[in-house]
Amino acid sequence: MGYWMFIFDHQKWYDLYEKNCSLKTQDEWYAEGKPNLAIGLIYFLTGLIFELSYIPFMIAMVRKEFFQYSCYKFMFMMGIYDIFILPCNGIITGIQVMKGEHFCHNPKLYYLTGVTGVVGFYGVTTLCVILGFDRFLEMGFPRLAKHAFGGYKTYLWMCVPILYQGYVGFQLPHIFNIKIYAMHHDPYNLIHGMENNSLFNFPAFQTFFAWNNSLIISFLTFFYGGLLVITKMRTKNETSTISKAQKQMTIQAICVCGEMFAAPLLHIFMLFWEFPVFIEILAHFSWICLHGDTPIIYFILNKSLRKAVMKMAIPSIFKFRDSFLKSSVATKTAANRVDASISYIQA
């Protein structure tokens, strides 16, 4: 049902997704769309700003001083996911909302952006569970953490979300729906005569999605709840060997993945019940923020990363300023020479 069908059984994908688009003309599909400049701009600008702000932190994280730690490897991989997801759930959907385009205006593009965003979400949530497990062992059982995540084993753990994405490829994806300004598993939802298609609402998919999100919430609660308890206990213990860096990385991991609780829980309810459109909009906006506000958390909580980014940014600013000043001086010098030549000729 998922992207494997798009790749290996395209005719079946066409019959399920694109064939119904021929039942209406392009003008009729435009009439089904609901353009909204304000919501579209919010989605677009939020996605774009988050996308651009992520880049310097990604560059900083690959430095040896950071990348030697397993948690930074996981955070870097999470950043790769987010950079691919933000154009799909923020930038492109923002343009789609501003134009009021239904799925049928460009079925392949909107299908692939939906698949990328949703499959990426599964990957990021899986990574958050692994990151929580890593931090849990590091803080509570450091010797065991070295055996579980030391050396090349970190890279083996990084394969888990990729393998899980392969399995998710058999599941039904979510696609942006212009009627509700949010993702929905049925691209024809709220289209008269085409809604409530059993192929988009079968129980097996609902069961998988509900179980996936429930397990994510359970694992996150266990690992990050345990982290909070361990951190508090070790902070109170005067003989504790907890370092400032360990505490900082733990708090940062909790903040980065803490918001993963709300989105999966909300989408479980949205799978079985219809909500007002403003709730759907808030859910989609929270999904954009879930993948994009991580650089803000890094900037506020991670002093080392913030310094590394500032060191990269400040020389660039000064270099730009110096080149601008040099060009200004050169322009003024050339202008003075021209004025002097004109004065000499006139004399």
TrEMBL record:
Record-annotated membrane-spanning stretches: 37-62, 74-97, 109-133, 154-176, 208-230, 251-275, 281-301
Entry-linked InterPro entries: 7TM_GPCR_serpentine_rcpt_Srt
SUPFAM superfamilies documented for this protein: Family A G protein-coupled receptor-like (SSF81321)
Keywords of the record: Membrane, Transmembrane, Transmembrane helix
Protein name listed in UniProt: Uncharacterized protein
